[in-house]
Amino acid sequence: FVGFPDQDRNHILQQYEGVAFGRVNLDGAQEFFIRGRYDNRVFSDNSRTAGEADHENQIDRLYYRFDLQRFLASQTGKSMDVDMSVQVGRQLVNWANGLVLSEPIDGGTADFSVGNATAQILGGRTYYDTTDIDPYRPGYINDTDRMFWGGMFSYQFPKHRPFIYFLHQQ
Fold first, then answer.
1. Which of 9, 58, 62 is nearest to 32 (CA)?
2. Contact, 91 vs 104, CB < 8 A?
3. If you write DSSP's letter for every residue of 55-96 in order, what string do you get?
4. Residue 132: partners with Cβ closer than 8 Å, 6 or more residues away
5. Radius of gyration of the chain from its Cα atoms, rounded to whole angstroms
6. Which residues are within 8 A (CB) of 89 and not within 5 positions of it... i.e. 6 or more apart?
7. How far is it, in rounded angstroms, from Cα 26 to Cα 72?
8. CB 45: neighbour CB atoms within 10 A?
9. Handedness of CA 104, 112, 148, 128 (dihedral sign)
10. Considering the entire predicted model, what is its pTM?
């Protein structure tokens, strides 16, 4: 019988997480959003990290959004078939249900629509402490600096919405 070296040792991890957010919406046309996280991990055992705390504070969303169609509707009471909206800041970008890109970035998006046709442009970079999408690259955890540029065009048919896109990653 071979004994285990860690037999009869307790390993305790106390872990806490807090999330706070705020949102201000003016006339449905302008939106400010912020969300922050606080993570705290404390190991209370006989290991070398006993009693040491691991803290992480992060603002993971912070953006401003402006919608021209809603702004003009709130000011004049008239609705238009043409729209433009811009969103800038730290935001989650989800293209093609997340299959093309699903990544939080520091940057901006602009959406243009006329009737059933929509175009979107994107520019931004991953923020510094993001885990990289390539886990085989050296230093992929918390050492990411990827820039994204792209555009997507779509058209809404009665039961289908095809799209075409271009996405450049640097």
1. 62
2. yes
3. EEEEEEEEEEEEEHHHHHHHHHS---SEEEEEEEEEEEEEEG
4. 126, 140, 141, 143, 144, 146
5. 23
6. 61, 62, 63, 64, 106, 108
7. 12
8. 13
9. negative
10. 0.78
Q: How far apart are CA 111 and CA 77, in angstroms?
A: 22
Q: CA-CA distance, 16 to 149, in Å (whole number)?
A: 36
Cβ(132)–Cβ(146) below 8 Å: yes
Q: pLDDT tens string for the chain (170 positions)? A: 455 565 556 667 788 899 999 999 998 899 999 999 998 888 776 554 555 557 778 898 999 999 999 999 999 988 888 999 999 999 999 988 888 889 889 999 999 999 999 999 999 998 877 777 778 888 777 777 889 999 999 999 999 999 999 999 98
Rama region for 6: left / alpha / beta (φ>0; ψ in -120 to 50; rest): alpha
